[in-house]
Amino acid sequence: MSQTTQQQTENSAAQGDPLLERLSTSLSEGDDHSPIYMRLAMALADAIDTGQLGHGRSLPGERLLAERLNISRVSVRRAIAELESDGRVSRRHGARTVVQTRVRKSLPNLTGFSADIRARGMEPSFSWLFRGAVVGTMQETMALGLPVQSEVMRLIRVRRADGIPIALERAVVPISILPDAMLVTQSLYETLASLNASPHHGFQRIRADVMSATEAELLQAAPATPMLVADRRCFLEDGRAVEFTETRYNGKVYDFIADLHM
Predict the structure, then answer these.
(1) Cα Rg for the chain, rounded, in angstroms?
(2) Pick the CATH number of 3-99 from 1.10.10.10, 3.40.50.970, 3.40.50.10490, 2.30.40.10
């Protein structure tokens, strides 16, 4: 098959592709001033997170995306680079970009850190490192479905169990939901409940990492100590993102346990 014929075949097959239709609609309905590559990255991330782009599935080619969405290949390439840096996709030499395969364990109980530590028979405590409004990073705005350069409320603290530092927590909430970071004095979830914004559902990804020198100092551990990193996204009942939290646990003193039932 000639390159021209193959291209025509791909374009014809793509006409009814629900993914491409979804991406096209998402870009055309966008009412913010975010760069087009960032809006495409967010639309692709949403397709991955909702399961339309399943693990191991190949993304449409850069040329096809550019042509169908009427954007430049440079923008497509930058969008895919954002997804790759976020761990959602991987690019293999000589092959298409594929959705990164990860094993996800559904965690049945949507609880905060304090409730989790108390359930383990320990007393939670913490110390603030930062609490206030900032311009969100690309990772944060993507996770919350906000336009690039949006302000968010960021809460960073050292979490302790029975006085021992075991985790570094960075929680981010849209300003439209949490207008003042000082409202959070203890539990973020209790504060959200008082604002009628309790999370309704969410998902959590757990991955491995090692501590930087700064993290090790805060957690009273040696640099390069193993860490368990939990990224959590939670949503209101109407589907709006209410929270993105990254919690970096000392892997030597904390583990995740889930009951398994037949």
Answers:
(1) 21
(2) 1.10.10.10
